[in-house]
Amino acid sequence: MTIVLTPYWSNGVQKLKVAPQPPAAPKRGLIPAAFDRDVHTERCLLQLRSKDKGIEKYIYLSYLKNEDPAMFYKLCLEHMAEITPLIYTPTVGDACVNFSHIFRRPEGLYVSIKDKGKIRDVLQNWPRIDEARISVVTDGSRILGLGDLGVNGMGISIGKLSLYVAGAGIRPESTIPICLDLGTNTQRYLDDPLYLGLRQKRVSDPEMEAFMDEFMHEMTATFPKLMIQFEDFSTDNAFKYLERYRKQYPVFNDDIQGTGAVVLSGFLNAAKLASAASGKPLSTHRILFFGAGSAGVGVASQLMSFFTLQGLSQEEARRSIWLVDSQGLVYNARGRLAEHKKYFSRNDYQGPPMTSLLDIIDYVRPTALLGLSTITNAFTTEVIEAMALINPRPILFPLSNPVKLSECSFAAAVEHTRGQVLFASGSPFPEQEYQGKTLYPGQGNNMYIFPGLGLAAILARVSQVTDTMVEASSLGLANSLTDEERSLGLLYPQVNRIREISAFIAKEVIRAAQKSGVDRSPDLRNKSDAELISFINQKMWKP
Ligand SMILES: NC(=O)C1=CN([C@@H]2O[C@H](COP(=O)(O)OP(=O)(O)OC[C@H]3O[C@@H](n4cnc5c(N)ncnc54)[C@H](OP(=O)(O)O)[C@@H]3O)[C@@H](O)[C@H]2O)C=CC1
Ligand SMILES: CC(=O)C(=O)O
Ligand SMILES: [Mg+2]
Fold first, then answer.
1. Ligand nearest to the Cα of 88, by number
2. CATH number listed for the domain at residues 257-446
3. Are residues 292 and 505 in contact, defined by beta-carbon separation less than 8 angstroms?
4. In the chain, is it the N or the C terminus that has fewer CB atoms within a 10 Å radius of its CB?
5. Which residues pair with 290 in a beta bridge?
6. What is the per-residue burial (b if ≥16 Cβ within 10 Å, else e) of 322-348?
7. Does the keyword Acetylation apply (predicted)?
8. Residue nearest to atom 5 of ligand 2 (CA)
9. Would you list the domain boundaries of the chain?
10. Is 400 touching ligand 1 by the criterion CB < 6 Å?
11. Is 467 annotated as a binding residue?
């Protein structure tokens, strides 16, 4: 099927034309004599590879996506490991920072505080209302670890949705990237004549709240079959709006829940290998979080709820987790704490503030150190060596994005643990040779989770996203490692299998939705697992 998108900014007419199958042959003279679609795939790849800089490759791929979406997604699927870092982290970080400068043409929906009171009118301008199934919504206030990028955050919604299409076969015309323009507190953007957003500071909390209530209400009224992913909201708002809407609308927060799921999955696979080396069971793990924001606390909560399922009491599970923030170890006697840190705040430490990560490691003696802090190279040589001294196979997950903010590189982790590290990072690192052996880094990034989770939510037409669905996505991912991948010591499956993995995750999530009673596709209940997988595969859009 050929999809022809009429440029909707050109004449105010917004429509999608779906050409009948098979597409009409091109008119004579409009295509060169030797043009061949397969050869053209190679041509596009060569053009992409001829560019030196990541950002140039990003711009080329954006152009390709707009001009020839089928070719763009074909390249994504056939060269997933090469292209994902260009359309997503780390390159999407550069693209967002420079979004107003590299901007070519509008893509997605911009809803601003000036639209308050008439948000429905704005949403109704979307050209593909009936097809809309999934939206990634950001307010640009915490894009990756890069801070408040204002309306430039649109790049992250676009990037995540490209992965929905490539990774789970969501139809391209069913996706809506949205950036809410509520101002920005980043002065250099306010001063930049090319900046594309409103030139005002961020609105107050009550103003944002009223805006968000109207926005969510109108989204559901306009797009009744839409699933919403909240992305890269600043910490307080990430927690606040997830809690506010999660029982009312089909919505999830990728940074809290998607990250929780992906890290639990990698942790489980790492913990098996660590336990095999130490002889200690899963219940004895001690997990230190360096970074206690939306991602850190989201992951801590996910690990904790898994531990309780494994038979630990609530208190035992809570006590296996320590948080560190910009002020050091998080503990009750330290004084006033942000709401989201309170649950994991320690009540068993009374001393003076403990700020050095080395001291904290010495005190906690963690089996796993997880970085979600945005602090580049916070896992110094000494920190990595300290972890290796305590553990035969230390678990080190520097998860901050993009790659320049990673708490350590894979090379450093391998070198300072003498090849024993169990490693996953948020952005990709190259493999390493160590003593004649190739070691592979894991990529602990929510991109393994949200495509399958979102696809399941769409197919089962869920009314809400439950904790059990998120957990099912995590266990589905953990269980999708093949024997070959396990024998290579991988913690996550190879990304070129993403569609197969997404289908498996989607099946698990649909089953969890059915158990929770939040599904609204009764037909899927009668399908066997094999039938369900085959149904999911058949529903995936293929370029
Ligand atoms: N791999 C993945 O899939 C994902 C990765 N991430 C990455 O995680 C990172 C954090 O995201 P998020 O949690 O939303 O951001 P937040 O801003 O909510 O959290 C950052 C945390 O790091 C802490 N921190 C800052 N400076 C230091 C320091 N010097 N020492 C110790 N802790 C410090 C902050 O402390 P304080 O609370 O005191 O300010 C805060 O707790 C980002 O880089 C993001 O890209 C996020 C989601 C998914
Ligand atoms: C991966 C992701 O969601 C983040 O870094 O924010
Ligand atoms: Mg994010």
1. 2
2. 3.40.50.720
3. no
4. N
5. 324, 371
6. bbbbeebbbbeebeebeebbeebbbee
7. no
8. 144
9. 3-249, 257-446, 449-539
10. yes
11. no
Task: Determine how β-strand 432-434 pairs with β-strand 109-112.
Answer: unpaired
- Atom of ligand 1 lying closest to residue 426 CA: 1
The domain covering 3-249 belongs, at the CATH homologous superfamily level, to: Malic enzyme, N-terminal domain (3.40.50.10380)
Q: pTM (2 decimals)?
A: 0.95
CATH topology of domain 449-539: Rossmann fold (3.40.50)
Q: Which atom of ligand 1 is nearest to the CA of 292?
A: 41
| Residue with CA nearest ligand 1 atom 15 | 293
Burial environment of residue 498 by CB neighbours within 10 A (0 to 12, 13 to 18, 19 or more) = buried
Long-range interactions of 301-305: CB distance < 8 A, separation 24+: 301/256, 301/260, 301/343, 302/257, 302/260, 302/261, 302/263, 302/264, 302/470, 302/471, 302/474, 303/260, 303/263, 303/264, 303/267, 304/344, 305/467, 305/471
The protein residue with its alpha carbon nearest to ligand 2, atom 4, reads: 144
Tell me the two tokens of residue 267. 């942790």
- Do 449-539 and 257-446 fall under one CATH topology? yes
Residues 254 and 230: beta-carbon distance below 8 Å: yes
DSSP helix/strand/coil, 289: strand
| Preceding peptide of 402 cis, ω within 30° | yes
Is 349 tagged catalytic?
no
Does the active-site annotation cover 160? yes
Q: Is 483 annotated as a binding residue?
A: no
Per-residue pLDDT of the chain (543 residues; tens, 9 = 90+): 334 444 333 333 333 444 445 567 778 899 999 999 999 999 999 999 999 999 999 999 999 999 999 999 999 999 999 999 999 999 999 999 999 999 999 999 999 999 999 999 999 999 999 999 999 999 999 999 999 999 999 999 999 999 999 999 999 999 999 999 999 999 999 999 999 999 999 999 999 999 999 999 999 999 999 999 999 999 999 999 999 999 999 999 999 999 999 999 999 999 999 999 999 888 899 999 999 999 999 999 999 999 998 899 999 999 999 999 999 999 999 989 999 999 999 999 999 999 999 999 999 999 999 999 999 999 999 999 999 999 999 999 999 999 999 999 999 999 999 999 999 999 999 999 999 999 999 999 999 999 999 999 999 999 999 999 999 999 999 999 999 999 999 999 999 999 999 999 999 999 999 999 999 999 999 999 999 999 999 999 999
Q: How many whole angstroms separate alpha carbon 60 and alpha carbon 502?
A: 27
Helix (H, G, I), strand (E, B) or coil at 196: coil
Ligand 1, residue 373: give the atom nearest the CA.
22
> Contact at 8 Å (CB) between 396 and 379?
yes
